[in-house]
Amino acid sequence: MSYMRTQVVSWRLTKDLKSALEEDARKRGLTVSAVLDSAVHKWLETSQAEERRQSQRAQSQAAPFVGAINDDTWSSTKVRQTVRDRIKRRHGR
């Protein structure tokens, strides 16, 4: 990770967690900062991937309804109510 670090983040850890972090860094031959950097990058990648999956799932669920109402006289209010009615019928709510 060869980039200029200009920002500081600080948080409190339990004594046990700090010791485990320092031990892991020593075993890997890294600084605590490098271990934390790696952990945060991996967490962000996982989090962003999950967000993309959820977004794709929502889009695929909405896709059947895109263009399903083909009347030029439909206002957004009428469309909203129609979609709500369809959801109620489909899910019994």
- Main pleated-sheet profile: none
Name the average pLDDT. Answer: 86
Structural class: mainly alpha
User: Strand-residue fraction?
Assistant: under 5%
Query: Topology as H/E string?
Result: HHH
| Terminal CA distance | 52 Å
Structure summary, number of beta strands:
0
- The CATH class assignment of the domain at 12-66 is Mainly Alpha
Uncertain segments are none
Q: What is the molecular shape?
A: elongated
CATH topology label of the domain at 12-66: Arc Repressor Mutant
Would you mind describing this structure in some detail?
Helix content is 66%, strand content 0%. Helix 1 (15-28) crosses helix 2 (32-62). The protein has 3 helices and no strands.
Topology:
Blueprint: H1 15-28, H2 32-62, H3 76-91
Helix pairs in contact: 1-2
Quick gist of this model?
The chain is an all-alpha fold and about 90 residues long. Helices cover about 65% and strands about 0% of the residues. Helix 1 (about 15-30) crosses helix 2 (about 30-60).
Question: Main traits of this protein?
Answer:
elongated; 0% strand; Arc Repressor Mutant; 93 residues; mainly alpha
